[in-house]
Amino acid sequence: MKVERQLKRKWGTRNQQGPNSSWRGKDNNTGKVAPKVEPQQPRNLDIKCLGTRHIASQCPNKRAMILKDSREAVSDSDEDGMPKLEDVSDDGGMEYPVEEDALVWLDDHGKVKVNKRVLFNLSIGRYKNEVSYGVVPMDAGHILLGRPWLIKRELLEYPISNYINIKGGFYGRDFNLIKISYGNSTQIISPQNFICSGRYLLKLESGPHKRSEQKNCLVYSRKNKIVKAVAVSVPSSPADNAEDRKQLSENYGFRQIGEPLPDNVTLKDIVDTLPRKVFEIDDVKAWKSVLISVTSYALGIFMIAKAPWYLLPLAWAFTGTAITGFFVIGHDCAHKSFSRNKLVEDIVGTLAFLPLIYPYEPWRFKHDRHHAKTNMLSEDTAWHPVWLEEFESSPILRKAIIYGYGPFRPLMSIAHWLMWHFDLKKFRSNEVKRVKISLACVSAFIAIGWPLIILKTGIMGWIKFWLMPWLGYHFWMSTFTMVHHTAPHIPFKSSDEWNAAQAQLNGTVHCDYPHWIEILCHDINVHIPHHISSRIPSYNLRAAHKSLQENWGKYMNEATWNWRLMKTILTICHVYDKEQNYVAFDELAPKDSQPITFLKKVMPDYA
Predict the structure, then answer these.
(1) Is the pLDDT of residue 369 over 70?
(2) Which of 237, 353, 418, 589 could staple 358 via S-S, CB 3.0–4.6 A?
(3) Three-state SS for 8?
């Protein structure tokens, strides 16, 4: 190995003035004050050795020292002036332990043995000294990490996110080792199969700016588990490689993770490939969906009335799913894909939302922005990742966020319903009038409908016939929404990086549910074509999806509902991170993340 050494010189002869000279003198003839004359620096200056009249690449002080396999240090020139290193190891091969802690290479076995020392002659001006150094074998990858033997570091393992974090050192930076597997091609290993050995990708972090390097790495360890690493070639994104996507699909519970959509593809390019018939409104099919929802809801109420107490949960689940169909009908009305008559759409949409206590117009305005800004960090009005600043703002809020995005996430649409749809300040001035009409309709339903239910059935009847099915609806509302746009590989982007086609096609998930759910919910989970064009009626979504599969199938994310998919979302997709997309709560605040730890233990992991 060659290690370049630079010997620093002092500056050359300075421009000195005599004792009688002054930067401010008078001209002998005119008596005027002479202007200050600044000494000019040489044009050719070597900033490394501070010598003049040459540049760094031509520095005469550049020397190379060769470290042989026998650990003998020799110069590549007999007359290069490099000071010789004198072997001062006089103890017959005795090993010198590193003080306090042990130096460990990631790509070697065991501790580094320091069994040789050298004497280095040092002189700076009049100062001269001799320093004894221990000789440690190194390579270029080690040098890039600074001087690890002078730095104490701490290893932290994060099996779910599949990386090891090394704290401290390297000029104040932390760096991560991300696990990848052996094989013909680089691929991400499953978090469930995390092992502290094999290949790793080094990620260097410094404040908000982050970058990735592939190097031979070393760590400075005390009592932590030792890991290994080698330099490897890795893709820029896991989704760039077919085998990586296949592995990620299995890890996350997906049937397919799509390729990244090229930047030059526009949303119009995708819409133009859809057949015209998928945009056609069919009044018969539209009112048929209304009939299905009304009939199934009436059947659900009958089941609740007649079922014994131990079958009530099943009756509530069915009725909650049936009432979700009302939401889908109002959803079509809001997108102007239910009827050619816009007044009919407004009336049907308002009535369909009333049993849900959902104000139709406020939801419509906010939902239109969700389609226009899908997976845009701040602008999307549906769910988006938690901001780190928000998460760290206070312990109480942090606890609430952990519970809300953890075990209570399947009901978090209730919080979204309260926060986004009843505050007039959240709407534009030209929207406020219609918002007030919808709020008045919801208030009238509460003021008239709830007392009638309580009058006929009592408080327990209100809980039994309205509240429990309503909670069932919010379970599906929350589940559908988070599955549609939330996954570890789906990024949220800032407005300057956002791409409409990528967000709608790559950033949306098609998920298959049991057939009876698809019927009662009018195929709302055939969601990718709905985001390509919201004007496609719900009864045409499957035909549109088939067309997208034929033309853009390799770019689409598809899944069948399973426990692993839900576990991935609930235990990983938490705090926004530009590089990783998400950072789990238990990686940022392990002590406060008992709910996440609980979910990891109790939730099934089969797909």
Answers:
(1) yes
(2) 353
(3) coil
Q: How buried is 517 (Cβ within 10 angstroms: 0-12 exposed, 13-18 middle, 19+ buried)?
A: middle
Q: Give the relative orientation of helices 283-306 and 468-485 as an angle to the nearest 10 degrees.
A: 130
Which residues are 558's β-sheet partners?
A: 256, 510
> How many angstroms separate the CA atoms of 391 and 25, rounded?
65
Q: Of 256, 173, 254, 185, nearest to 212 (Cα)?
A: 173
From CA 253, how far away is CA 565, in angstroms rounded? 4
Strands 174-180 and 199-206: antiparallel
pLDDT in tens, 567-579: 999 999 999 998 8
- CA 9, 13, 17, 22 dihedral sign is negative
DSSP 549: H
**Reported confidence tier of residue 162, pLDDT bands at 50, 70, 90:** low
Residues 47, 41: contact at Cβ < 8 Å? no
Domain ranges of the chain: 1-84, 91-234, 267-602
Within 354-431, residue ranges assigned H as helices are 360-372, 388-391, 395-404, 413-421
Are 320 and 268 in contact, with CB atoms under 8 Å apart? Answer: no
Residues in the chain: 607
Strand partners, 163: 158, 178
Residue 119 host element (H or E): strand 117-124
Question: What is the structure's pLDDT at 109?
Answer: 47
Return d(Cα 374, Cα 308) in angstroms, integer. 44
Task: Extract the tokens encoding 299.
Answer: 């059947």
Give pLDDT, residue 344.
96
Side chain identity at 537, as an amino acid letter? P
Distance CA 111, CA 106 (A): 10
> What is d(CA 262, CA 282) in angstroms, rounded to the nearest whole number?
35
Cα torsion at 446, 448, 451, 454 (round to 10°)? Answer: -90
For every residue of 337-367, DSSP letters joined together read -S-S-HHHHHHHHHHHHGGGT--HHHHHHHH
